[in-house]
Amino acid sequence: xxxxxxxxxxxxxxxxxxxxxxxxxxxxxxxxxxxxxxxxxxxxxxxxxxxxxxxxxxxxxxxxxxxxxxxxxxxxxxxxxxxxxxxxxxxxxxxxxxxxxxxxxxxxxxxxxxxxxxxxxxxxxxxxxxxxxxxxxxxxxxxxxxxxxxxxxxxxxxxxxxxxxxxxxxxxxxxxxxxxxxxxxxxxxxxxxxxxxxxxxxxxxxxxxxxxxxxxxxxxxxxxxxxxxxxxxxxxxxxxxxxxxxxxxxxxxxxxxxxxxxxxxxxxxxxxxxxxxxxxxxxxxxxxxxxxxxxxxxxxxxxxxxxxxxxxxxxxxxxxxxxxxxxxxxxxxxxxxxxxxxxxxxxxxxxxxxxxx
Length: 357
What we know:
It is built from 15 helices and eleven strands.
C-alpha cells in the first residue's frame, strides 16, 4: 500500500548512520508502566462479552470457549477466580450450569467507561485520532484487521463499527482493498475526504506553540530524547544522533516515499510516523507486532524495525507480559503518564479493582 510520490527530491539523500549495535538497557520505570496493565485488556474484553449478553451474564461453559479469542493467560475458570472483585459466579437454579456476571463494583466502572466513550467531547476526539491514523504517510485507507489490532490502544469502543463509525458518514466509509501479498479482497476503513486541519503532528503543534513557522518549523523540530540512567551512547552514535536531529522535519502526514529509503532523512520521516502513531494512542504504547503490522500496510515494516532499534532515547521496547511493547518515552515520567486520557483514568480504576482481595 505504499504510495508513490509526485514531490521532487527536496533533501540530501545521504546515509551516515554508523555501523554499530545500539545497546538495549532495561528501564524499570517503563517496565512497571507495562506490567501494571497485566491482564487488563483481557479483563475488559471478557467484561464486554458478559455485558453484551441480554442477561448481562454468560454460562461458565460459554465463557470457557472464549479463552483463545480473548488471549487469556490461563483457563477461563482460573482467570475469573483470580479476579473475584470483577467477576462473580452464581448458580441460577437447581441442576443449571454455573453462570458468571460482573460484580456491582465492576458494573459501576463499566458505566463510567461507557460515559467516557459516549461523551460528545470524547467521541469527537476519538474520531479525529482515528482520521489521523488513516492519514499517516499520506494514506487514506487501512484494512479493518489493522484497526482491530490497534483498537484497544486507540481507546475505541469494542463495538466501534456500529456505535461510532456509523454516526460519522462524513468522515468514514467501509470499502474493499486488495491484499498485495495474497491478492485477496479485504474490508478496509476509508477516510471520505482529506482533513487538512488534522494533518498537524504533535511535534508540529509543540513547535507552533513556541512560535516556529514556515521553514523554521521544518528545520527547528527535534525529537525529545530521554535516556535512562546508566545509558551512554557511543561517541560515534551520539554524534550521528545530533546531526540527524538537525535534518529537516518531514511531517508524518506527508507522502515522502520519494526519499531514498537508505537515507538519514528517510529515517527521520519514519521516526516521525512512529512517534505520531504512538502519540495517537491513549496509553502511548502498543505491542511491537502492532506497529510492524501497520508498517507493512505502508511498505515500511523493515524501516520501522530499524528505527525502533536506532533510537532508544525516543522509543523503549519492554519485554514484559509475554510480548514486546513499544513505549513512547516522552509520554511518561517514571511509570506515570504525563497526560492522562479520560479512558486511562477508568482503566486504572479497573486495575485497582482487579488487585483488591
